[in-house]
Amino acid sequence: MxxxxxxILRSGTPLIYVTMAGMIAQRAGxxxxxxxxxxxxxxxxxxxxIVLTGSFVAAMLMACVLCILASxxxxxxxxxxxxxxxxAGLGLTGLGIGGTALAAQSIFGSQASVTAPxxxxxxxxxxxxxxxxxxxxxxxPFVVLALWVLLKRTRFGxxxxxxxxxxxxARSVGINPARxxxxxxxxxxxxxxxxxxxxxxxxxxxxxxxxxxGRGFMAFAAVVFGAAHPIGSALAALFFxxxxxxxxxxxxxxxxAVPHDLLLALPYLATIxxxxxxxxLRGGAKTANGFAELRDY
Length: 297
Description:
Elements: H1 2-27, H2 35-53, H3 56-80, H4 85-108, E1 114-115, H5 135-153, H6 155-165, H7 167-172, H8 177-201, E2 206-207, H9 215-225, H10 230-254, H11 260-264, H12 266-282, H13 285-296
Antiparallel strand pairs: 1-2
Helix pairs in contact: 1-5, 1-8, 1-9, 1-10, 2-3, 2-4, 2-8, 2-9, 3-4, 3-8, 5-6, 6-8, 9-10, 9-12, 10-12
């Protein structure tokens, strides 16, 4: 049972961090479909940073800087060039996937996976069966709680929500929606860097091309499923992770009786069902209106 919990935490933590990035962007009025690209940049930069510098702190700083720069690029394209946020986000995803593959090949001269000598610091033997859990896993619930307090109980959170839901009204009371979106995307860049680092260096200590495998889109679905609420979105991401862990456990139980590809697809099927249920329960009119308001702005 403990192994199953550890498996859920390991697979769920990167997804939850990236979901929080998408949630903040959503509250600022941006449908962040670039999460996949920013996440894989964080995963690649962490492993390459560890290999080149031999320091986890330096690698994380490099990952955070690159993810913030990628997020700022998205903000510039949306705010200054007035591009469609959805198309811009998908473009950033393509840039992240292709750019990391090119970077790894250029630095190491091979398309093979890059292995780091060590990864994210872990709890250690004193914690028994949970010794392999990284510090990012331990910090995850506190980060979610801190974001809930920030967005629901502070003036900044109210200003961010106003910028996303009613940017014209926000501007009329002295709030700059463009600046709020800049902050939201920059903070999201840091969260994506942590999520990418946990994915590549949390337990595997390896970077492979396209290793995010759609987790950024799954995180976006968790934001929609959780109604862009910090706790609700985190629980939605955790639900997708539980389904994924059950699929892996089912491979051991059923063996070849059930196609492995079908079991591996379970979290993606759960994502589709979650988005469909969310749409049926809340409808799409409010989201569509908010998007139209952002485009007019």
